[in-house]
Amino acid sequence: PRPHPTFRVRPLTCTETRRGDQQVVHSLGDGAVHVSAARHDATFGFSAVFDAGASQEAVFEGSGMRQLVELAMDGFSCTVFAFGQTGSGKTYTLMGPLGQSDTQPASPALLGLMQRSFTCLLEQSRSRASDLALSASYLEIYNEQVRDLLSPGPPCALPLRWSKSRGFYVENQLSVEFESLEAIVSLLLQGSQRRRTSAHALNRHSSRSHALLTIHVRSRAVSAHPAPGQGWGAQGSARGACPSKQGTLCFVDLAGSERVKETGSSGELSVEANSINRSLLALGHCISLLAKPRGKRTHVPYRDSKLTRLLARSLGGSGITLMVACISPSSRCLSETLSTLHYASRARKVTTRP
Ligand code: ADP
Ligand code: MG
């Protein structure tokens, strides 16, 4: 299968409207996106396009996210990643407004792909007869350092290692078991608050790190006896014959791509911006190599950044990936929008063997 690029155009923000920005990106239906501005006029095709009016639920149902959750429960490694310019709606798409305000709980209609997936995961795990163990780990990559967002105390860098059996993995990362929606949402909140953010010209609460939340789904082998209360011929006995499986569902909130001069960053901020841009460049490079036909493919330089090492399996190997390209419709963001569209179009050509 190929990664499914899903494309989401957010509404113009109040600031953009007040400034009189023009809306230059339009959805034409059937997966087509049209960009029209003074000197640009181009149409791109994707598997799904959501425009400014699309609800969080529509994005969850229409992007294939539900199927991805089910595949993770069947033992596949699944990844969803949101990318796009800073302020384009990545965090909103993944987490809803909860990403920004830590005082008020978000209204249920605004919950993002993550909370919706957790609900789906827990519902499914209750309805499936097999016994599932769920756990979560949460990391950020900040200035090329991997940090655990769940472990208490000040963030410390963890080593990223490689082994033949596991591929790239983070040593000593915490993995926390959970059984309820409240528990996993509270882990998500705790971790998100520890994420490194800085204010700059494009977004007041911009994430300065890439964050990876991974849900591990481990199915324990079940005994052949159906659990009490299950009818004759319940799935339990059939599933009991299955060996234990382990699937993962990883949510990647990439730090935004940006031009240092547009954001008014300097000093420490420009160091951050450079390391963000460098790892996004490495990711783009791996994706464009992976997009070539197998025979023509040269070595894929996963080792070029921590981000590509951690995503190696989901990008090229045995994973299933859903990409959500987020963009702002504003005329001011045109050049970043075009680069996001090209990036996503390239990623469409990558195939994996789950
Ligand atoms: P990013 O994570 O890409 O930097 P955010 O998710 O923080 O961007 O979004 C930037 C701003 O736009 C936030 O104020 C957010 O609430 C708003 N926003 C983003 N997407 C939408 C949307 N689909 N509907 C309404 N507001 C949105
Ligand atoms: Mg963000």
Automatic annotation (TrEMBL):
<protein>
    <recommendedName>
        <fullName>Kinesin-like protein</fullName>
    </recommendedName>
</protein>
<keyword id="KW-0206">Cytoskeleton</keyword>
<dbReference type="InterPro" id="IPR036961">
    <property type="entry name" value="Kinesin_motor_dom_sf"/>
</dbReference>
<keyword id="KW-0067">ATP-binding</keyword>
<dbReference type="GO" id="GO:0007052">
    <property type="term" value="P:mitotic spindle organization"/>
</dbReference>
<feature type="domain" description="Kinesin motor">
    <location>
        <begin position="2"/>
        <end position="350"/>
    </location>
</feature>
<dbReference type="InterPro" id="IPR001752">
    <property type="entry name" value="Kinesin_motor_dom"/>
</dbReference>
<keyword id="KW-0963">Cytoplasm</keyword>
<comment type="similarity">
    <text>Belongs to the TRAFAC class myosin-kinesin ATPase superfamily. Kinesin family.</text>
</comment>
<keyword id="KW-0493">Microtubule</keyword>
<dbReference type="GO" id="GO:0005524">
    <property type="term" value="F:ATP binding"/>
</dbReference>
<dbReference type="GO" id="GO:0007018">
    <property type="term" value="P:microtubule-based movement"/>
</dbReference>
<dbReference type="GO" id="GO:0005874">
    <property type="term" value="C:microtubule"/>
</dbReference>
<dbReference type="InterPro" id="IPR027640">
    <property type="entry name" value="Kinesin-like_fam"/>
</dbReference>
<feature type="binding site">
    <location>
        <begin position="84"/>
        <end position="91"/>
    </location>
    <ligand>
        <name>ATP</name>
    </ligand>
</feature>
<dbReference type="GO" id="GO:0005875">
    <property type="term" value="C:microtubule associated complex"/>
</dbReference>
<dbReference type="InterPro" id="IPR027417">
    <property type="entry name" value="P-loop_NTPase"/>
</dbReference>
<dbReference type="GO" id="GO:0051231">
    <property type="term" value="P:spindle elongation"/>
</dbReference>
<dbReference type="Pfam" id="PF00225">
    <property type="entry name" value="Kinesin"/>
</dbReference>
<dbReference type="GO" id="GO:0008017">
    <property type="term" value="F:microtubule binding"/>
</dbReference>
<dbReference type="InterPro" id="IPR019821">
    <property type="entry name" value="Kinesin_motor_CS"/>
</dbReference>
<dbReference type="GO" id="GO:0003777">
    <property type="term" value="F:microtubule motor activity"/>
</dbReference>
<keyword id="KW-0547">Nucleotide-binding</keyword>
<keyword id="KW-0505">Motor protein</keyword>
